[in-house]
Amino acid sequence: GGGGGGGGGGGGGFRALALGVSFLKCLLIPAYYSTDFEVHRNWLAITHNLPLSQWYFEATSEWTLDYPPFFAWFEYALSHIAKYFDPQMLVVENLNYASRATIFFQRLSVILTDTLFIYAVHECCRCIKEKRAAKDILEKPAFILAVLLLWNFGLLIVDRILSNQEFQFCFVFFQKRYLEGALLFAVLLHFKHIYIYVAPAYGIYLLRSYCFTANNADGSVKWRSFSFLHVTLLGLIVCLVSALSLGPFLVLGQLPQVISRLFPFKRGLCHAYWAPNFWALYNAMDKALTILGLKCNFLDGTKIPKASMTGGLVQEFQHTVLPSVTPLATLICTFIAILPSVFCLWFKPQGPRGFVQCLVLCALSSFMFGWHVHEKAILLAILPLSLLSIQRAKDAGIYLILATTGHFSLFPLLFTPPELPIKILLMLLFTVYSFSSLKSLFRREKLLLNWLETIYLIQLVPLEIFCEIIFPLTPWKQHFPFVPLLLTSVYCALGITYAWLKLYVSVLTERTSVRQKAE
């Protein structure tokens, strides 16, 4: 794309946004932290004290090392800085150790490594083409994109308040730098294997745009243009990165152990709090059919596991009426859901925009049907969709539904009273900005949302009031403590499913222009 807006609508504007969000993260240092804090403290201790051969076997804490080796080495490097803050945090047996120095170090390491994400956002904003010159910096698409990415509500509360030391999603906007992009993605995959969700998009895009060097006039692939050299180069990059990451464990004969840690299928279909996806709706339907079956005497109450009716959202969820779901079933569903988007990327290539569309659909499809999906994974779809939202009104409408619903679904992660005003205020600020900025950007177009979509999003307000204020005062809290989580999960699942279907319909029915075919 052309240089549009010098990175976020002027260098000064971007710098102000980046410094502002970093300052806000500093203010949130004393805020609530979750089990993720102890997870990373334990990993720092494991990598610092134990030899490589024991990293993926150590099980003193229940939070065993279950990230790929590059991330383990990253923790190892951090541990050598951590010892100057508080050496006690590096003792493996010090479970749930949380001194002020430890908390400060964990938060600070996140804020500093976030510079990588800030750089990635800056590069993205530089690639934005402006259809018409905006006089006001606040109306420049590049500036709006910078706000939507840097000040993303989900990233603020998940990575900051929950103290995740995780590399942010580094948008590799290839811009014909295919090998560089492939290298970065391969490295990213060995830092955090959740990105395997979007690997089909990267793989097909590289195969279509780099391994085949020419198209026919109608946009179809010219099979004779296949480049064996390009495939070899890509293969070498992937093999080299994989060898660096997994090689030592292959030599030690521990590869099966590493794989079993990275893909723990022994865990249940859903987290303790259901991610708002298809399986949340499936579980809710099972609960509803069970209650109906008991009322109508179709089911024998003595044979139903007690936890499935009263204990709420336990990890090992036993389906009573509907068939229980296996990891293989989720894998097949995910594969089928991803397939159309990958076909579109191959048969209807639209350059970088088509790639980002496929990326979002792969992330969303995996979120919808994956095994043991974490609710935070919705950010994998929301962030790249931000790129599309500033280009077309149709995508902006889908973004507003997905972002609002997806961010709201993260609310149960922050359940302590002091965080209630913080999360509501941050969510309101981000949502109001998203709506107003995208509305002004597309003011010449039709409405971004129809009346039904608007009503659905407005209903999130009474839902939050009921879950946070009304429900805790009722006697139901003792008997059905899981109800607020269930309502949030199921209601948000409806919105996310709708956004996924709407985006799919938009992509599948889209006509490709002659110029896009040539690209």
UniProtKB/TrEMBL annotation:
Coiled-coil residue windows: none
PANTHER family: DOLICHYL GLYCOSYLTRANSFERASE (PTHR12413), DOLICHYL PYROPHOSPHATE GLC1MAN9GLCNAC2 ALPHA-1,3-GLUCOSYLTRANSFERASE-RELATED (PTHR12413:SF2)
GO cellular component: endoplasmic reticulum membrane
Protein name, per record: Alpha-1,3-glucosyltransferase
GO terms, molecular function: dolichyl pyrophosphate Glc1Man9GlcNAc2 alpha-1,3-glucosyltransferase activity
Gene name in the database record: ALG8
Keyword Transferase: yes
Source organism of this protein record: Ficedula albicollis
InterPro entries in the cross-refs: Glyco_trans_ALG6/ALG8 (IPR004856)
